[in-house]
Structures are given as structure tokens and as C-alpha cells.
Amino acid sequence: MMHSRRTIRMAGGKVTSFWSRRLAGFKGVTLLLLTLPPLFWSGNFIVARAMRGAIPPLTLSFSRWVIALLVLLPFAIPALRRQWPLFLPHWRLLLLTSLTGIAGFNTLVYLGLQTTPATNGLLLNSTIPVFICLLGTLSGSLRLGGSQWLGLLISLSGVILIISHGQPLQLLQLAFSRGDLLVLLAMLCWAIYTIALKQLPAELDRLALMTLQIVLGLGMLLPAFAWEQTQDGGVSWSLEVLLGLAYVGVVPSVLAYLLYGACVSRLGPARAGLSVHLIPVFGVLLAVALLGEQLHGFHLLGMLLIVIGLLRR
């Protein structure tokens, strides 16, 4: 209680409370947890889209997690040995998070991106926070206030503004295909993964947890991967494909997942889920930087609305 009244006189006579300084540090960490995963996943969408003709979707998903496992395993083995008994009581949640977050989500996205246009994919991606809030409310695991629902709607309106090029009514003219339904199912998987992830005890080592989820997810993917190898069309190997696999296997698979898990633990599934609305923001910026596309006023306004929605508590 004494600390809450402590003040520190800064240069120039400015008085700053002890807790204000602590809060500033917290906001910096929170900003990284909210922004880095969608930034890394935006790159995943771009790379996956670019490689769709060179590597089949199931092979891409399976290879991605094999690379991630090889990266994580040396660091996770000590924690797995030490905490193995702690994981056993939560085997149902482990299977559920492995199925939805590892085996299901990316595989369905890669399958959907074979046929669905980018505009539809971005629109469907923005349904994740809606699914999280609805499923969490129905299951009783989330209790959202009016401010949080308002933040969700503001953020969602920014996404719609970006993907509709400033003309939201054009979305009514979109036709949805089988690929769209696969992407939509992937978003539902991610919402379930986010809610289930929060139910796992905080004392479980995050590296060990993710490694175990990847092992289980690869086991689930193995039959589909083996089947795809019997079909026509293999991998068209090139330096670009190798670099693309390296990226999706490390950055969005390891770094983004670990940071997102920390974000869920720190902020809760509802607010963490809102961070995926930043994916179209970073997608636009990456397209401008890497593909030479134009940045328009509706992009800037949409980004502003997304940020405002994220900052509401």
C-alpha cells in the first residue's frame, strides 16, 4: 500500500508515481504480445500463398511442424522430463489444443488458400475474436463487459473497412466457396484453441507444453500427410521453397505461438483474440513494402479503428 503513494521527481520537476512507471513497462510488454504474433502470422499467409503451387498444403503443414519440433525439442526436453506428471491430468485439453491449434488450424488454412481469394480469407480471419467471445460466453468461461464488446465491434469495423477497400457494402456481393468454408472452420478451430489454452495451468512450462502439442498434432496429421504423398504432384524444390519452409517452421510456428500463449495467459482469451485483427493491418503494410501495392486513406482509417478497438478494456 505504501508504494501506491510513492512519487519520484524526474528531471524538469515532473512527478511520476511508482506504479505509473511499472504500468508503462507493462504496456510495453503488452504491446509486443499483441502485435508480434499477428505480424509473424501475416508473413505466414504471404509465404503460404506464394508457395501454394510449389508444395501441397498437407505437406506444408506437416513439414512446418516437423521443423518447429526440431527447433524446440533440445530446449524442451529437460522441462518435459521434470513436469511430465503435471501434464497427465490434463490430457483431454492437450489433445484438444493439439487438434485445433496444431493439426487443424494451419492445415485448414492452407487447404482453403488453394481456392479462396485473399479478400475472403481476410474477412473470415476477422471472425476469430467473434468466435472466441461467443464460445467463451456460451461456455461460461468468459464474462465480457459492454466496453469489451464495443472494442470488438470497433476493431471489426476497421478490418471490414480495410478488406472492403473503404466500401463495406461491396462485401454483400462476395461469393463464398468450399475454400471459404475451410478457412471459416480453421477460424473456429483457433477460437477453441484459444479458450482451451487458457484452461491449462500456468505452472506448465510453455516450451514443454508447445512441444508436446506439436508431437500430438504431428501424430494427427501423419495419416493425411501420408495419403497426400500417394497423390500426383510433389514438392517443387528450390531455394525459395526452402527459405519459405524455414520461415513458416520457425517464426509463425514457434515464436508466434509462444508469444500468443503468453498473451492469452496475461490478457485472457478475449483480448488476446482481438490481436488477430492486426493481421490484415500487417498484411496491407507487407503488401505495400514487398509487393509495391498502394496505401490508401481507408487503410489508415481501418488501422486506426483496429488499434482503438484493441486498446479498449
From TrEMBL:
The keyword Transmembrane applies. Signal peptide: none annotated. Residues 31-163, 178-311 form the EamA domain. Keywords: Membrane, Transmembrane, Transmembrane helix. It is found in: Membrane. The chain crosses the membrane at residues 62-81, 93-113, 119-138, 150-169, 181-200, 207-227, 239-260, 272-290, 296-312. Belongs to the EamA transporter family. This is DMT family transporter. It comes from Pseudaeromonas sharmana. The lineage of its organism: Bacteria, Pseudomonadati, Pseudomonadota, Gammaproteobacteria, Aeromonadales.
